[in-house]
Amino acid sequence: MTVSARPTTQPAGPSQRRTPQQASSGHRRITRSSILFLGLTIALFVSSLAAAGSGQLPIPFAEVVGSFFHHFGLDIGPMPTHPRGDATLWSVRFPRVAMAIVVGAALAVAGALMQGIFGNPLAEPSVVGVSAGAAVAAACAIVFSLTFAGDWTTAVCAFVGGLVTTLAVYLLSRADGRTEVVTLVLTGIAVNAVASALLALLMFLGDTQAREQIVFWQLGSLNGSRWQYVAVVAPMAAVGIFVACLSARSLDLLALGERSARHLGVNVERLRILLIVVVALLTAAAVSFCGIVAFVGLVIPHLIRMVTGPGHRILIPASALAGALALVIADTAARTLVAYADLPLGLLTSLVGGPFFFWLLRRTRRTAGGWA
Amino acid sequence: MSAALVARGVALSFGPVAVLDGVDLDLHHGEVVALAGPNGAGKSTLLAVLAGDLSPDAGKVEVLGRPLEEWRLRELARHRAVLTQEHHISFPFPAQEVVRMGRAPWRGLAEEDRDDEIVAESMDATDTTALADRAFGLLSGGEKGRTSFARILAQRTGILMLDEPTAALDIGHQEAVLQRARREADNGSAVVVVLHDLSLAAAWSDRVVLLSYGRVASDGPPAEVLTAPLLSSVYDYPIDVIEHPVTGDLLVLADRQAAAKRKEDA
Fold first, then answer.
1. Does the predicted TM-score (pTM) go above 0.90?
2. Beta strands at B250-254 and B239-243: parallel, antiparallel or unpaired
3. Which of A22, A122, A256 should one mutate to test binding to chain B, selecting the residue with the greatest count of B CBs within 10 A?
4. Given A10, A119, A310, which is nearest B121 (Cβ)?
5. Which CATH superfamily does the domain covering B1-75+160-173+183-226 fall into?
6. pLDDT tens-digit profile of B133-160?
7. Which of A17-31, A343-357, B31-45, B108-122 has the lowest mean pLDDT?
8. Where do you find CATH 3.40.50.300 in chain B?
9. Which residues of A sit within 8 Å Cβ distance of B?
10. ipTM over 0.90
């Protein structure tokens, strides 16, 4: 450490004081992020249109593009040649793709937020049981035929269920201002167990139709998505993601621990409550019509961190884009892998996410030097 | 010298244990005050109360003449910085970004324009520039301590609270950290620092506040507080204080002969 007698105030401008190394590292990160954002946006747009074209009634990519732009009054590309092509796109395919985008973005951001609040890279709505909690409350709405809020009833119930579960997990799994991996995972097991029991009870109580719908939830699927549902879920996700982006800087500081974040001016208690509500909102948005789609919130933020580093200002919007992209692709796979069958989406994400979670668990244990 | 920080009659109990019991403390601009005392004497707890992390059961704390609870957190963060003992981080932020977090309270103000310059200066002063791109979590204990100190410096506050800033540091870096703290005080800041090494406290502080069982056992210039009889009684261990023959620095040492004798007698 040099103990130079240089005065504290330096007249030189910021650019002059920056060492070349720091300047280049900052520059590198910015370029990387802009490439990532650009790439994700293009990939999301292209894959969404490609997804809309594939299915039992294949529609060529150019015609999908044409139908899309014509809808907005732009005379670009050819219209679908099949007589039912345009109608199929706008009444079945596009709402489903839109739902995949909304749900993917909501789940990935919910995961990134949870990891930030818990200070733990393994926190995720489905792992800790928040998705299951939201699903229980949503199932109540079905079984007891609740309609107090019209189209929004299921979503409102899912939100309340998600909020109660998030708060419970948060209070149960924290000690000394942070959450250890073991405590978090074990809390998740306990919460998931209770939620499964309640779901089983609801299935027992419900009629055949309700039972079928609950089973469909547990598997997670975008089958039967309609614009009406998208109109409920999209505003919830939009509000949640917007608030998440606004909280990004505070989340960075929270990584230093609660005390240090407070010393840097973050109102930790307020931030925590706000973000727990946002996590519940985002999870409810995903769960209310599509059921439990697990591990998206775990895998996506983690991959983004590997590319751009842990800063939440980039992590949160990039996770939203990447989550949307991942679900568009996964859902297309779910409905095209097996001809004339619509595989449950949750099955696919768990098939990929489960092993990833295991790998992450092993790695976290190793780098943290124990189960901390 | 105006008062930066005033604590009066601060008392705090954890269950039946009175950790702090009527502590008074004054911290003025331009001075370094060392908090010393045995393990469990209440040094870190006192610092946590002064920082606003813990609310005392009784007594009051004022920062720049205003009661602590009336401050908005962000405004307070522009006036005082706190170096905690633990340097933990949840995600692999590079060291440079950790130091930059110290600039957060200044966001949106004119001072923000100097962020790059201040971060570079703080890292230079703590010898952490070479660590800039390394993940904070993977640094050694001493490197983490210096990076955290750089973050505190980057906050550019008039009050510094340092909880064992020299822990895990080698002797050269210990000196450099305290020398920098000294310089901040000479430039008008108020510095309160928890120190275990009493020779360091003697060398770098204007005043030593010696805590014992949650009370102030003594408060004054190092030469008055750091005396063999007082220290031996507070630490319950024979302690010798000698003057360096050339520099006149106070050296606080364990009196091992007396300790061995005491053991034989017992």
1. no
2. antiparallel
3. A256
4. A10
5. P-loop containing nucleotide triphosphate hydrolases (3.40.50.300)
6. 999 988 999 999 999 999 999 999 999 9
7. A17-31
8. 1-75+160-173+183-226
9. 1-3, 8, 10, 12-15, 17-19, 21-22, 25, 115-116, 119-121, 178, 249, 252-257, 259-260, 262-267, 305, 309-311, 367
10. yes
